[in-house]
Design a protein that fits this description.
Shape of chain A: globular
Strand order of the largest sheet of chain A: 3-2-1-4-8-7
Structural class of chain A: alpha/beta
Number of strands of chain A: 15
Largest sheet of chain A: 6 strands, mixed
Number of helices of chain A: 10
CATH architecture of the largest domain in chain A: 2-Layer Sandwich
Order of helices and strands of chain A: EEEHHEEEEEEEHEEEHHHHHEHEH
Strand content of chain A: 15-25%
CATH topology of the largest domain in chain A: Nucleotidyltransferase, domain 5
Helix content of chain A: 25-40%
Low-confidence stretches of chain A: none
Radius of gyration of chain A: 21 Å
Mean pLDDT of chain A: 93
Distance between the termini of chain A: 8 Å
Oligomer: homodimer
CATH class of the largest domain in chain A: Alpha Beta
Chain lengths: 313, 313
């Protein structure tokens, strides 16, 4: 039995690799960078290499990161990889499982890739889940790592670039929706006319954030977003305050899609999102009873379960 | 009396100048380009010239365009200029009139600028209108040019980069809201993850556009927009079809902000928007009785009225 795995989360714009002790699901060491799947895909296209070399191309990059963690101790340790790696722009496109999907490692779609000279590590590539109009790649692994803990009968919210609202019944992922909240924030704050009205900062302006949540929940997003501009033109908010106002508008608008009879909410995210979404859920009148799980820990637990199911037979 | 004027609409990203016969409000000739206020402002910032030279800097550019229309005949003809020229990034920032504003040339704010060596034409700079949370620069002139014709008691919709929904009671502009519909379309189709799922084209796909309108009207925009991506991933629509689907989603979402007891709608726009918004208003169940005025003609009429009031005394 492998008592250690390499847990890799390769998203559109970020790469994160963790060396894990499976028995305790604890992190021995990790490396991360912003060399996401999107930029690797662009480099791959430029390389002009044949399609049958694509998997190796991505795994060479993966191996270069593995070597950053440590050297000899890594030998023979398998890599569990989820996220955008299995997408059309990833190492190997895999079909998605369709909902409903039991949150059990046996019910996700996992592709085994043998070690070779590109990457001398056994690789388990985890594919995503799709519903009629939506798709997730990565979140299914966090949900797997959270199942039986707190997901049952919950509306699970996974905030991010493309936030997910997932309904779990029994132990099955039955439906979900994607909200482009994080990407809209990025587009509006960096490249729209609003970019002149906001300034990135990490201060706390909870009163302004909460006003944004109310305005975004009660109004039309195409209109509410413009008020970030007039808040600057009419000197209501500074550009730094407006940054939090825009964040509130978008999160409030996302949460306005939740119906009044929603089940209890479970948040799976980092601590920064936890604070924002918890406040926004309360302000929006949805619920002030929010369970929380750390997204990184959930991901690692999911990878450990996949490792146990697919390797330790 | 001046029987001719130069009618100039200088927006954020476009410049349009028309030589007008005032008695008939007809266009003798025109020039247009994409040298909008935003790019002129950036050049102005780079020039390092003193603030008291700003008006002249913009008017020199204006004069270079006037010379493209014709030569000698232009002498002494006044220019009426509306749009972003009076904004913080324009030739001279002017305060806005606050609602309610009577749609009468006497009630807009117009700044007179005398001819000089930068531009040997008398200039009337028209300022915008603001409400509690919204601002318009340019649309007030189109409304002025439409007043008494069809605006009274109407919800006036002026589609565009920043669409306006304006309520006119009696002969007064009493309230309005801005919707960033056109800018969201531009951001999403060109720079978001959806850019890989759409392809610009001018074909007609009314069934797909109308599905977009329904989806954008009934759903949350942050979620509905993501369905443009899955429509491509799941091979529901081609990228060319998706372009119209996204357009429909955004217009449908904009129109979903209109309440059920809305007054009759007047559209002021070009013919392309007329078709899209007329269909979307019907599909959304708001109204199928839409009055229409051509935006360019409304603008010219507004400029003619301002000329008569401010020059022919």
């Amino acid at each position: 039995m492998n008592t250690q795995i390499l847990s890799c989360d390769w998203g559109t714009s970020n790469f994160r690799l963790r060396w894990i002790d499976v028995s305790t699901a604890s992190v021995i060491s990790e490396v991360s960078d912003s060399i996401g799947i999107a930029s690797v895909y662009n480099e791959w296209l430029k390389s002009g290499l044949p399609e049958n070399g694509r998997s190796g191309y991505y795994r060479k990059i993966l191996f270069s990161r593995i070597k950053q963690l440590a050297n000899d101790p890594m030998k023979g340790i398998p890599v569990i990889l989820s996220g955008m790696s299995s997408s059309s722009i990833g190492a190997m496109e895999l079909p998605c499982k369709k909902v409903p999907v039991a949150l059990d490692s046996a019910h996700l779609y996992v592709q085994h890739i043998a070690p070779d000279e590109c990457c001398p590590h056994e690789l388990l590539l985890v594919s995503g889940v799709q519903s009629g109009n939506d798709i997730m790649r990565g979140e299914e692994t966090m949900l797997l790592g959270s199942a039986n803990a707190a997901t049952t009968g919950r509306l699970v919210i996974l905030p991010g670039t493309h936030s997910k609202h997932v309904t779990v019944n029994g132990n099955s992922l039955v439906s979900f929706k994607t909200y482009m909240t994080g990407e809209f924030f990025d587009l509006l704050s960096r490249t729209s006319i609003l970019s002149r009205s906001v300034a990135a900062n990490s201060k706390e302006h909870w009163d302004i954030f909460e006003k944004g949540v109310r305005d975004g929940a009660s109004g039309n997003l195409l209109n509410a977003a413009f008020h970030v501009r007039t808040a600057q033109l009419f000197a209501k908010f500074t550009n730094e305050e407006n940054y939090h106002y825009l964040s509130g508008i978008l999160i409030g608008n996302e949460l306005s899609a939740i119906s009044a009879d929603t089940p209890p909410v479970l948040l799976i995210c980092n601590s920064a999102f936890r604070e924002k979404y918890s406040r926004a859920l309360t302000i929006s009148g949805i619920t002030d009873e929010v369970e929380y799980l750390d997204a990184a820990a959930a991901l690692v637990r999911g990878h450990c379960q996949i490792a146990k199911h697919y390797i330790d037979r």
